[in-house]
Design goal:
It contains 13 helices and twelve strands. It is α/β, with parallel strands linked by helices and about 400 residues long.
Length: about 400
């Protein structure tokens, strides 16, 4: 390069799965040359199912029409915003003004950076969960925010320790990231948890941003933080069609909250894209009209898969919860020494990858509190999970 990169890039690294996927691709070339099967990837949570058929039909019929291929509104078409508001009312019991309290996103991951850019100045404090989604940390670093990790521990059900939070120096803290049902832990939300988070945010003047894409997966009762009293004053919530509707590659999400917050987010978003493809928005609106039977069928499949994932955890000697939500099974490894500054989860993950041809995610990438853990994605059919179990069992005593 003839110029140096921006300083903000010095504080972040390439996303772990981006690096690991290249490693797996190279390994697959070697395996193919040696007559071996490709690696079974149980890493990232990319649903392998098909979106609601009605949504596919809308996409197909709308995409061939004239006049639908131009730029779209930055705020999303009314039909999509209205469908999002109706979805929140139907399943979460939350009333939202579709015209001012919802902003469609190109996936909720985009929202993490948009919200960070809209509300954080250099040096502002951000509460980030450990373990938690790595993008909360990287987005905060890219806007030069000051990161304060707060512990989530298995002994506390993977919930925040509110006494510990109150004891922290919260001066200058402006935003707190939360994620329930939790990734990677699978901890389920409760109304009491959301009430306490809202109370904490209001008393300390901290914006609580709840990342909520897993609330329909292996959950009988989806919950939203926006249903808690006083939440609209102190909270934003991101949501997505990626997981609940098998539409990860479509990149359709949303952020909801008070109109004043949404207005600030739009200021940033309108500088970064020119709207979502109109047929895609109409198809997403149709997907959001899916009834309870869609989610029942979706979860019936995930429950079949989790049974095999539990057996993989058993084979690895890991302990795990059978009352978790989301797309993953999160397991704690038996006590084991690290090797050459590598965590037990990382050591085991690489051993399984190179000896069994199966990739499972090491927990260290989610924070220090995940170092002794591993994560298995449920985004593979039962026969593939069974094959992974057989391969792992051959190399594990």
């Amino acid at each position: 390069m003839i110029i140096s990169p921006a300083n903000r890039t010095l504080s972040v690294k390439e996303y772990y799965f981006s690096i690991k996927n290249r490693e797996i691709a190279q390994l697959n070339l070697q395996r193919l040359a040696n007559g071996l099967d490709p690696v079974i990837n149980l890493g990232i949570g990319s649903p392998d199912g098909t979106p609601p058929r009605e949504a596919l039909e809308v996409m197909a019929s709308e995409a061939v029409k004239d006049g639908v291929h131009g730029y779209q509104s930055y705020t999303g078409i009314p039909q999509l915003r209205e469908a999002m508001a109706a979805w929140y009312k139907r399943y979460y019991g939350v009333e939202l003004d579709s015209g001012s309290q919802i902003q469609p996103l190109t996936g909720s991951k985009e929202g993490i950076l948009l919200i960070s850019m809209a509300f954080l100045n250099p040096g502002d404090g951000v509460l980030v969960p450990d373990p938690g989604y790595p993008t909360y940390t990287s987005a905060s670093k890219m806007v030069d925010a000051r990161i304060l990790k707060y512990n989530l521990l298995e002994s506390n059900g993977w919930y925040p320790d509110f006494e510990a939070l109150e004891a922290m120096d919260l001066s200058g803290v402006k935003l707190m990231w939360t994620n329930y049902p939790g990734m990677p832990t699978g901890a389920k939300a409760t109304p009491e948890l959301y009430r306490r988070l809202v109370d904490f945010g209001r008393r300390h003047g901290i914006l609580i941003v709840n990342d909520n894409p897993y609330s329909f997966i292996r959950c009988t009762q989806p919950l939203s933080i926006l249903a808690a009293p006083g939440a609209m004053e102190a909270c934003l919530e991101m949501n997505s069609l990626s997981k609940a509707h098998n539409m990860a590659g479509w990149r359709v999400g949303m952020v909801a909250g008070d109109a004043a917050y949404i207005k600030e987010i739009l200021k940033v978003k309108s500088q970064m894209d020119s709207g979502i493809f109109r047929p895609l928005q109409l198809a997403a609106a149709k997907a959001l009209s899916a009834g309870p039977d869609w989610f029942q069928a979706l979860n019936a499949e995930y429950h079949r898969r989790e049974q095999v994932a539990w057996r993989i955890m058993d084979a690895l000697g890991a302990t795990y919860s059978r009352d978790a939500a989301g797309l993953f099974v999160w397991g704690r490894l038996p006590a084991a020494p690290s090797a050459q500054d590598r965590t037990p989860g990382e050591v085991l993950s690489d051993r399984i990858l190179y000896e069994a041809g199966v990739f499972i995610t090491p927990g260290f990438i989610f924070g220090k509190n995940g170092e002794n853990y591993i994560r298995i994605s449920l985004c593979a059919p039962v026969p593939v999970l069974e094959k992974a179990l057989a391969k792992i069992s051959q190399v594990i005593d």
